[in-house]
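Why should sequence recovery work at all? Because a backbone constrains its sequence more than one might expect. Tight turns favour small or flexible residues, buried strands favour hydrophobic ones, and helices have their own preferences. The token representation captures these environments compactly. In the example below, the structure is given first.
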């Protein structure tokens, strides 16, 4: 009968999955470790976290933009050359590569000003701010 054959196949498959090496606690520990590793990796990729607690919002002048040919979630990734304008300091050139919301593309014309987050101790590292 087809039903009994299917039931036997299901039992064999479950035994293969839960063989003598099956340890749910070890699998949970390994999974939790992997989640912590991936979370740390994602947090390290957040550019705002790399600026540190002393980051300030300031203006920057767009020098030029260049397409990288890639996109993230439908947003084109652009390489934007900027002059960061910190009060009391000369303009600092920097280049930011970041996904740009489609509705913000016009804001990146040369000579236009955009908002950035920057650490005054490292003004060459900036993050574009869209809100």
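From this structural description, the recovered sequence reads:
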């Amino acid at each position: 009968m087809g039903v009994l054959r299917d039931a036997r196949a299901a039992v064999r498959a479950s035994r293969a999955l839960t063989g003598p090496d099956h340890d749910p606690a070890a699998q949970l520990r390994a999974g939790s470790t992997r989640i912590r590793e991936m979370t740390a990796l994602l947090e390290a990729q957040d550019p705002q976290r790399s600026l540190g607690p002393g980051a300030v919002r300031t203006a920057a002048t767009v020098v030029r933009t260049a397409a990288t040919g890639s996109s993230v979630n439908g947003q084109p990734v652009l390489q934007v050359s900027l002059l960061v304008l910190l009060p009391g300091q000369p303009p600092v050139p920097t280049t930011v590569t970041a996904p740009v919301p489609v509705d913000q593309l016009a804001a990146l014309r040369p000579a236009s000003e955009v908002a950035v987050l920057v650490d005054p101790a490292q003004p060459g590292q900036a993050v574009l701010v869209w809100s």
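A few observations help interpret the result. Residues 2-45 form one domain.
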